[in-house]
Design goal:
430 residues; alpha/beta; binds pyridoxal-5'-phosphate
C-alpha cells in the first residue's frame, strides 16, 4: 500500500514505456522485483533524492555506488562546470587523463598502468580480452552470482538483475560463447580447484568481485581470496579483481587493501567517475603493454578518458583522501547496523544483515549468506513488502533483494535514526 503521491511518476512511466523498452534504460530501475512502479527522479542533494512529485527520500542507492560523497558535492559540481566550459570532449589525450591514472596507481600499486573507458562493462570486457590475448587461452572462470557488466561471455550466472528476472543466461548470448565461461560457487575454493584441474592449461583468467555486491552483500570467507591468488600464480592464470563497486568504496584502496590480496588485473568504475560514465582497467605493466597501440590486443573508445568524467573523478578522489573519511563512513554504517540489528532482533521476521564498510544488505532469511544459492533462499516477496513500506516512508533502497545499499558521507545522524525507525515500522508490514 503506497500512500505517498506518485501521480507524476506514474504518468512519466506510462509515457516512457511507449518509447523505451520497459520504460527504463537499465532493467532493475523498473521496480519489477518489488511489485510497484518506479519513481522518476528530478534532482538530488547530499543524502537526499527527490522525485517528480516532489517527494523526498533518504537515498541508499547512490546511483548504485558512485555517490559516496552524497549527491552534488559542490567541489565535484564545480570541477564539472569548469571543465565543461572548456569543451566536453576532444577525442584526444588530456593532462586530466594522466592525473586520474596517477591517483588510481597511488591507491592500487598493482595497477602499474591503467586505461580509462566509459563503463564498468567495458572495463571487464576489455580486461578479459587482454587476459585471453596475454595468456593465449580462451576459457575464463567466474562465480555464480557475481556480476561484471553485460558483455556476452560474462552474462552467465550473473546475479542481481539477471537473478531478479529469473534469467540466469540471457537469450542472445550464443551457446558457443558461453561455453568458454566456466562458473564456480562463490567462497568455495575446492570447487574452483576441481574446475581448474579439469581445464588444465586452458583458463586465461579468474574474475571475481572480491566482495560480492550483486547478490546482496557477500564478503569473502577467510582464505578464499588468498587461495585464489595462490592457485592463479601456480597455474599461470590471471586473477582479475573486479572492484567496479568496491574500489574506493570499502577502503581507498578497495577490497584489495582491506584483504591484502592483489589481482593481476583490476577493474574500476562507479566512484572513479564521481557520477559520470566511467570505467577503468589496469594492472601489471607487462600485461598492460600487450594492449594496442603498444601491443596487438585491440581496445578503443571515442569517449574514453572523457574530460568531464576525468574532472569529476579527480575531484572525487581528492575529497576521499581527506583524513578520517573512511572512518566516518565506517562509523555511520556501524551505527545503522547496530540500530537495525536492534529492531530486527525484536521482530519475528527472519532477516540477516551483512556489511563491509559502507556497503550492506538485509537478506530476508536467517543467513548467513556465503554464495548465490544461499542468497536465493531469501523471501523476495517479504523484501518487496519491506521495500514498498520503506519507499512510502521516504527511504530509497535498491529495488531488489539481491542488491547492496550504500552509505555516503552526507548521511546525517538524523537520516540514520529516521531510517532505523522506518525499518522498525516496515517490518510490521512484512
Ligand atoms: C556495476 C558493476 C559493473 C558494471 O558497470 P557498468 O558501469 O554498469 O557497466 C561491473 N562489475 C561490478 C562489480 C559492478 O558492480
Amino acid at each position: 500500500m503506497i500512500i505517498m503521491n506518485h501521480k507524476k511518476s506514474e504518468d512519466l512511466f506510462a509515457k516512457a514505456k511507449t518509447i523505451i523498452p520497459g520504460g527504463v534504460n537499465s532493467p532493475v530501475r523498473a521496480f519489477k522485483a518489488v511489485g510497484c512502479n518506479p519513481v522518476f527522479i528530478e534532482k538530488a542533494a547530499g543524502s537526499k533524492i527527490y522525485d517528480a512529485d516532489g517527494n523526498e527520500y533518504i537515498d541508499y542507492v547512490g546511483s548504485w555506488g558512485p555517490m559516496i560523497l552524497g549527491h552534488c558535492h559542490p567541489k565535484v559540481v564545480e570541477a564539472i562546470q569548469t571543465t565543461a566550459a572548456n569543451g566536453a570532449s576532444f577525442g584526444a589525450p588530456t593532462a586530466m587523463g594522466t592525473e586520474l591514472a596517477q591517483l588510481v596507481n597511488q591507491a592500487y600499486p598493482n595497477i602499474e598502468k591503467v586505461r580509462m573507458v566509459s563503463s564498468g562493462t567495458e572495463a571487464t570486457m576489455s580486461a578479459i580480452r587482454l587476459a585471453r590475448g596475454f595468456t593465449g587461452r580462451d576459457k575464463i572462470l567466474k562465480f555464480d552470482g557475481c556480476y561484471h557488466g553485460h558483455a556476452d561471455s560474462l552474462l552467465v550466472k550473473a546475479g542481481s538483475g539477471a537473478a531478479t528476472f529469473g534469467v540466469p543466461t540471457s537469450p542472445g548470448v550464443p551457446a558457443d560463447f558461453a561455453k568458454y565461461t566456466l562458473t564456480a560457487i562463490y567462497n568455495d575454493l575446492e570447487d574452483v580447484k576441481s574446475i581448474i584441474a579439469a581445464n588444465k592449461g586452458e583458463v586465461a583468467c579468474i574474475i571475481l568481485e572480491a566482495i560480492a555486491g550483486n547478490m546482496g552483500c557477500v564478503p569473502p570467507v577467510a582464505g578464499f581470496l588468498q587461495g585464489l591468488r595462490d592457485l592463479c600464480t601456480k597455474e599461470g592464470i590471471l586473477l582479475i579483481i573486479d572492484e567496479v563497486m568496491t574500489g574506493f568504496r570499502v577502503a581507498y584502496g578497495g577490497a584489495q587493501e582491506r584483504y591484502g590480496v592483489r589481482g593481476d588485473l583490476v577493474c574500476l568504475g562507479k566512484i572513479i567517475g564521481g557520477g559520470l560514465p566511467v570505467g577503468a582497467f589496469g594492472g601489471k605493466s607487462e600485461i598492460m603493454e600487450s594492449l594496442s597501440p603498444e601491443g596487438g590486443i585491440y581496445q578503443a573508445g571515442t569517449l574514453s578518458g572523457n574530460p568531464l568524467a576525468m574532472s569529476a573523478g579527480i575531484a572525487t578522489l581528492k575529497l576521499l583522501q581527506e583524513e578520517g573519511f573512511y572512518q566516518q563512513i565506517e562509523e555511520k554504517s556501524a551505527y545503522l547496523e547496530k540500530g537495525l540489528q536492534q529492531v530486527t532482533s525484536s521482530s519475528s521476521v527472519a532477516t540477516c544483515w551483512q556489511r563491509v564498510g559502507g556497503m550492506f544488505c538485509t537478506f530476508f532469511q536467517n543467513g548467513p549468506v556465503n554464495n548465490f544459492d544461499d542468497a536465493l533462499k531469501s523471501d523476495t516477496e517479504a523484501f518487496g513488502r519491506y521495500f514498498r513500506s520503506m519507499l512510502d516512508q521516504g527511504i530509497n533502497l535498491a529495488p531488489a533483494q539481491f542488491e547492496a545499499g550504500f552509505m555516503s558521507i552526507a548521511h546525517s545522524q538524523e537520516d540514520l535514526d529516521k531510517t532505523i525507525a522506518a525499518v522498525e515500522k516496515a517490518l510490521t508490514a512484512v
